[in-house]
Fold Fasciclin-like arabinogalactan protein 7.
Amino acid sequence: MALNTAFAITAILSIWISPITAQSPPPPFLPPSSSPAPSPAPHVVNLTNLLSLTGPFITFLDLLLRTDVIQTFQNQANNSKQGITIFVPTDSAFAELEKPSLSNLTKDQLRSLLLYHAFPKFYSLSDFKNLSSQNPVSTFAGGQYTLNLTDTSGLIRVGSDWSNPQIRSSVFSTYPVAVYEIKSVLLPKAIVTTPPALTPAPAPAPDLSPASDSAPASQKGRGEEAPKSSETGNSNSSPHKIVLSGLICFLTAAWGAVVLMV
Ligand SMILES: *[C@@H]1O[C@H](CO)[C@@H](O)[C@H](O)[C@H]1NC(C)=O
Ligand SMILES: *[C@@H]1O[C@H](CO)[C@@H](O)[C@H](O)[C@H]1NC(C)=O
Ligand SMILES: *[C@@H]1O[C@H](CO)[C@@H](O)[C@H](O)[C@H]1NC(C)=O
Ligand SMILES: *[C@@H]1O[C@H](CO)[C@@H](O)[C@H](O)[C@H]1NC(C)=O
Ligand SMILES: *[C@@H]1O[C@H](CO)[C@@H](O)[C@H](O)[C@H]1NC(C)=O
C-alpha cells in the first residue's frame, strides 16, 4: 500500500517535472536590444481618456466635450509637429467660482475660455523658464488672450487677468502632449469683465511646494528609451528556479518513498 503510494507520488512528480527539465537550456544571452530602433512614432494620447483617468477634472472635460474644444485639442495633439500644452483646473477650482461667472457665457466665449487654457505647442516644465522671458504669451484662444508665466526656482505660475495659479503637478508631459494641473480657473478680462466672486474655499492647502516633477516631465519624451518591461531580464533566471524547486520536491518525494519502502 505504502509502496504503491510512493510509486504513484514519484510517477506524478516525474510527469509534472519532465516538461520543465526536458526544456532545452535557456538560450544564450541575447544581446541587449541596443541596435538603434527606428525612432518610434509618438504614441497618440487620447485626451478624453487621459483627463477622465486623472484629476478629478470632470468639469473641465465636460466643458471640452460640450463645446467640441476637445476635437481641437485632440487634433493638435494628433497632427501638429508643435504639440500641445493644457492647463487643467481641478473640479474644486470650478466649484470655487460663483455660478454666474461662467454660466452666463455665450458658447463662443466658453470656447475661448477653454482654449485660453492651452498653448498650441508642447512645453515641458523645464521650458517655462525660457517661456517666462517672452511674457505675455499668446494662448490657443488667439493673440489677445495671453498668459504671463513666472518661474521662481521651479515654482511655476500661470498668470491670467484674474488668477495666478501655480502648476501643482505634471499630469502628463511627453511630447507632443503636456497636461498640468492648476487649482484656479484661468480668467481673461476680455471674457470675464469683473473680478470673479469666489466661494470661500474650505481651508486650501498651502501653495508652497514646487510642482511635483516625478513624472518624466523634463525629458521631452523623444528618444526616451526606458525599458518597457523587465521580462527579458527575468526570463533567464526564473526557469532555473522552477527546475530547482521541482528537483527539491522530487528529491524530497524520492527520499520519502525510500523511507516508506524501508
Ligand atoms: C478616446 O476614447 C474615447 C473613449 O474611450 C472614445 O470615445 C474616443 O473616440 C477616443 N478619441 C480618440 C481621439 O481616439
Ligand atoms: C486622433 O488619432 C486617433 C488615433 O489615430 C484617431 O482615432 C482620432 O480620430 C484622431 N482624432 C483627431 C481629432 O484627429
Ligand atoms: C458674466 O458674469 C460675470 C460676473 O459674474 C461678468 O464678469 C461677465 O462679464 C458676464 N458675462 C456676460 C457675457 O454677461
Ligand atoms: C528661448 O526662447 C527664444 C525665443 O525668445 C528661443 O529663440 C530660444 O531657442 C529658446 N531657448 C531655449 C533653450 O529653448
Ligand atoms: C502680463 O504682464 C503685463 C506686464 O506686466 C501686464 O500688462 C498684463 O496685464 C499681464 N497679463 C496677464 C494676462 O496677466
